[in-house]
Amino acid sequence: MDKDTLIDTSREGVIAEMEFQCEGRTINWAPERLVIAGYTGKDQASVRKHIQELETLGVPAPKQVPMLYDLSPELLQTSESMRVVRNDSSGEAEVVLLDINGVWYIGLGSDHTDRVLETVSVQKSKQVCAKIISKQLWTLDSIMKHWDEIELKSWVQENGVETVYQSGSLGAFLGPEHLLDLVAKRGYLSSNMALYCGTLPLRRETFHFGGTFKAELFDRKNDRKITFTYETKLLKDAEEEEQYGKTGTGVYGL
Question: Which domain of life, per UniProt (predicted)?
């Protein structure tokens, strides 16, 4: 091979920097780790009940509670759209903790998940979907004293009408100190990491697949909000549907 045609691999594995806004400042940051925390509710009796309900739907029970899922940091993005292969994935509003050069910030994210693949492997179902995160951040210190009061909400659009999908407060979850201590004890804590901290129950019986997903983090005490909206778009799939089974049901064909 001619030297002029050699591929430059000097930056292989280097993640492009993301740009955020925080209290009037621009922050550029390249994530080095992404961890999704699940089953993080303070009411562990309700968490166990929820796990049993998921098992009846074919979702495997976690080996630990709370459960931590180590994902590729390349999944993080701030765009207003994401692409999926089939219309059987859905978003979940979550507060996100970010270690940016040694300082902790709070943002808003969506743990978009493939609900069919989830019946095979929860980690795989999360790994195959992009993880939307807000462009706006707050410093964690600025909300620590009233963490439980911060409101989290999401909406979906059905037939052009915006409907509340999730609603609650961060008081429903284990606090940031508890979660970060757990992450450290299990060996996941690292510099420049993003930690998704868990989601709220749905305000309905079934998932909403595709379309537009909107989320909001509201700090009522300081009268400020973090929001984002993104649209899920389907990729053109040339493969036969029979290879994967019926859309939205059954087990993903591996």
Answer: Bacteria
